[in-house]
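From the pipeline queue, job 12 of 40. The input is one protein chain; the requested action is below.

Action: predict structure.
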Amino acid sequence: MNLRVSTVCLCLFICLPAFTQNVVDTVLLTNIGIWDGSSGEVRNGQHILIIAGEIAEAGSEKPRAPSGTQIMDGLGHVAVGAITPGRIANFVVFDANPQEDISVLARADLHTQLLVKDGQVVENYLDNVIPAGPDIDDPDHMPLRVIEANNGWASIGVGGIISVDGLDMIQDDESKQQVGDLTEFRGAGLTAARFVLFGHLGEGYPVNYYMDWGYNGFDEGFDITEDDEYSLYNLEIRFPEMRIGKLTVGRMKAPTTISRSWSGTYLPTAFRQAPVSALTKSRDNGVRLTNTAFDKRMTWGVGLFNDWLTEGKSISDTNTYVTGRVSGLVLDNQVNEQLLQVGVGMRWTDFVEDSIQFRARPGVPFVPDYLDTGDMPGNEARWLTGEFAWRKRNFMLTAEHVRTKLDSPTIGDPTFSGSYVWFEWTLTGETRSWNYDKAVFGRPLPSHDFTKGGKGLWSFALAVNDTDLNEGLIDGGDMQQVMIGINWYPQKSYRWGLAYGRTWLDRDGLDSTSDFLHLLIHLSNL
C-alpha cells in the first residue's frame, strides 16, 4: 500500500466517530477531585472505582482494579454527586469547581466531562478511556478513546494520528552556503501518519501491550536517518506492577530527559527542542523499570538497551546503553494548581560500533540538518541531563540542559552541550495536568469544546535554545534559536499551530541567520 492510499485511509479512520464495544461493567476513575457537600471543600487526588453500577471504593488510595477494568483519567476535574461506597453511582464530573465559578452550573453542557447515571456512563468527554488490565495507567502516552473491544480476558484498541505541516523561510547568503538553498522545501506535506494498537492479554496476570507504527516524515533523534520512511515507533510489553516498580520490555523511550518522556503530540511547540533532538535518541530497544516514591513526589526510572534486533546484528556487535532518570516535586500545591519539579538523568554507552553521529534540524520539518558532527570514532560516551519544571495555573515553564562527553582521543575527547527553555501561557485559562507516574506535563484539554459552542483552548508558546556541537576537531555547528507560536485546540482531538522562529548558526567558519514560518495541523481520534 503506497503512502497516498494509506494516508487517505488513516484520515478517514480518524474522522469517523469513535464507538465502543465493551461488556465490562467495571470503571476506575483516577486523579479526580471529589466535592464534599458538607464542608464545601474539594478533595483532590482521589480515585473512584465502580463495579456493577455501585461505588466500590472512593478515596486517595488508588484501588487495584479487576482485570478488564475501563480506566479513565479524571485530569484533576471535580466530581459532584452521590459518591458513597455501596451506593449506586450517580454523579457528574465538571472541568471546574462550581462553588468557585457558579457559571459552571449555568452552562453545564459546556463544562460536563463525565455523567454517570444509575451506575451507567451516559456521557463521557474525559481524556483517554483505556480498555485494559489493572496496570495500564499511562494515559498521556496513548491515543485512546478509539475503536475498542474488551471481553475481560483480552482487549484491543485501535487509534491513529495524522500531522500535516506547512513551511516558509528566509535565508541570508551565509545560510545558503552552510545548508544549501531551502527554497525547494517551501510548501506543505505530511509529517506523520501513525497507526496504534494497544490493550491487554490475560486475566489473573494481565500483560499490557502497545504498538505504534507509521510513516516517518519527521522524527527527532541522532539515531533517525532520512532512509527511515516507515518506522516502528513503539512496541511495548508492560507487565503488572510489582513492588519494585513497572517493568516494560520492547521498543520504547528510555528514561533520560523530561522532554523525551513527554508525548511529542502535546508539546508547547510543534517539535522537541534542538538540544534534545541532537544529543538524545528517539527510541531504544530493551528493558525499562520505573516507579514512584514518597507518595508520588519522587519518580525514578532505569533502563538497559541494545539495538541488535532492529539493526540485524548480534548483541556483541551493537552498542549497549544504560540510562536513568530521577526527579522530585519540591512544591505541589493542588489548591493553587502550582508545582515545581527538579530532576537529573544520565546515559552511558560503549562504542562497539565504529562511530556515533549527532545532528538536528532547526525545530521545523522538511529542511536538512543544521547541526551535524559527522561520524565520530570513540570508546564510550556519557550523558548527563538536568531538568526543571514549573506550573502555576495556566502558566508553565520547562527547562533542560544536556551534556555529552565522548571518550575519543583521536578527535580530542570532545564535550557537546545544549540547553532550552519552554514557556507556555494558556490564554483561555486551562491548567495542564501533571502525570505523577511519568513526572511530566499532560496534554492540553479545552474547557469549552468548540464543537459544543465553546471557543476551544488557545495558548501562547515561547522557546529559546542553544546547541553547541563545535568542540576540538569537530565542527558540527553552534546554533541558537528563538521561537514564538500560537496554538488552538478546538477540541482535544485537533490542534492548529502557527509559529515563527529565528535561527543563528555558526558553522564552517560562517555565521548565518534564517527565519521560519511554520503551520501545524494535527488530528487524532483521541
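Job complete. The mean pLDDT is 83.
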